[in-house]
Amino acid sequence: MPLSSPLRTYSRRGKMLGPTSSSVSSSPSRSSPRKPVSQNPIFSHPEQLVTFLIGKGENAKPFPLHKDFVCVHSPVFNRAFNGRWVEATTHTYKLEETTLETFHLYALWLYTKTLDGHGALVETDSAELEELEDLPEDVATQFRENQLRLIELWCFADKYAMPKLQNVAMTHFARILNADPLMREEVIEYVYSTTAPGSQMQKYVMEAATISATKFAKEGDAEMIGGVTALVKSFPVDLIPQFVAALAIKITRAQGPVKIREYFVEE
């Protein structure tokens, strides 16, 4: 999915948190119950590594990680590397549909339990607004791309049964939208083409999009309203009436902030 031609967006002035940056609706058939036996790797075999091959064919990039960390956080990977599957013998797992950028975020979380320290996440400030285009070009680009990267990470965590990672990705995605509320069209298209109907991510995207549209409609900014119109067209046709109905309610009633924890998955 191309990452070019983003919508014109605005962000709140904030300080940089220096450097942060097929359907996945169900886990593969080899998955066991969502929770591994323990959430804390005992690290009893630090010499044991497993290798993930990211990408397809000859272009696949090897990415070794400690087996203890990988298996304790994903019942899918745990069963693959400790069961009767070929991965238990080869100590290699192919991830042909995963991007290297997404896997980098997964590896960062695996060892640190946070995504701070990667990309261009901005700490929201209630102060003045400024155009995202006024930020340094490399920061603005990373800021926009992080929307999609975090969605991809959420989907990766969903597929391999890592609810804690899903909720971390959701939290950071919400922080980005809080500072830069107009979602990219390809983000909406990706969410609705990749996640299961009624997923927590779909619910959050619908809520966040209607709140953003309400804000811009009340401000009467013609250019931003044009962006919202394009945003609406990114939703599946059968969901547009739902979006419009939710928008009408929000325009006529006072709305509080989104409670992001309401969109977490069960850990």
Write up what this structure looks like.
The chain is mainly alpha-helical and 267 residues long. The chain has two domains: 7-180, 2-Layer Sandwich (Potassium Channel Kv1.1, Chain A); 183-255, no CATH class. The protein contains ten helices and seven strands. It has helices spanning 67-73, 75-82, 87-90, 100-112, 137-159, 163-179, 185-194, 200-219, 222-232, 240-252, and strands at residues 10-12, 15-16, 49-54, 61-66, 92-95, 122-123, 129-131. The strands form three sheets. It has a three-stranded mixed β-sheet. A hairpin with a 6-residue loop joins strand 3 (49-54) and strand 4. Helix 1 packs across helix 2 (75-82) and helix 8 packs antiparallel against helix 9 (222-232). It is elongated. The two termini are 30 Å apart.
